[in-house]
């Protein structure tokens, strides 16, 4: 919010990150409709990121060129970093955001709890187990890698807990969808016009 004019500032941002391991360009609009163009050349990851965008209503244009000949770790980790940075940048001073949210989301056999506090403090808790190590060519441990990177760079508290489930695809998708629902709710603008903290900043 522009405090002088009273007009709402567009909550958009763009990030470019280039290292010896990845070259990433990202544009987001928090107040979008979930339109997305995702290109990481990691099929399952692209599917999960598209799902995240759709259910959070965050428009996302992402291109990642990574060292996939090594493995998927660098690309997944760095995309998490960039999405976290972009969300933090787009949120600005966080005036009027709801800040907290939680969701318990079913995905067939899987049931996953996600809770978030966009607090300005980074903390990540992950109590999710998979029965299989791989989903196609995608290592299930990379779900944790992605969300840890995102939480650290969004400077948020982010908690996941698997309540039940046996199908690894469903468990992973429930993580991404529950996070998307929480994110959409937590960044919702209220009519308070103030920082949602007694400290006066988050």
TrEMBL record:
The lineage of its organism: Bacteria, Pseudomonadati, Thermodesulfobiota, Thermodesulfobiia, Thermodesulfobiales. InterPro entries: IGPD_sf, ImidazoleglycerolP_deHydtase, ImidazoleglycerP_deHydtase_CS, Ribosomal_Su5_D2-typ_SF. This is Imidazoleglycerol-phosphate dehydratase. Its main location: cytoplasm. Coiled coil: none annotated. The gene is hisB. GO terms for cellular component: cytoplasm. Pathway: Amino-acid biosynthesis; L-histidine biosynthesis; L-histidine from 5-phospho-alpha-D-ribose 1-diphosphate: step 6/9. It is found in: Cytoplasm. Pfam families: IGPD. Keywords: Amino-acid biosynthesis, Cytoplasm, Histidine biosynthesis, Lyase. One of its GO terms (biological process) is L-histidine biosynthetic process. It is an enzyme of class 4 (lyase). It catalyses: D-erythro-1-(imidazol-4-yl)glycerol 3-phosphate = 3-(imidazol-4-yl)-2-oxopropyl phosphate + H2O. It comes from the Bacteria. HAMAP family: HisB. Belongs to the imidazoleglycerol-phosphate dehydratase family. Its EC number is 4.2.1.19. The keyword Amino-acid biosynthesis applies. One of its GO terms (molecular function) is imidazoleglycerol-phosphate dehydratase activity. NCBIfam families: PRK00951.2-1 (NF002111), PRK00951.2-4 (NF002114). Gene3D superfamilies: Imidazole glycerol phosphate dehydratase, domain 1 (3.30.230.40).
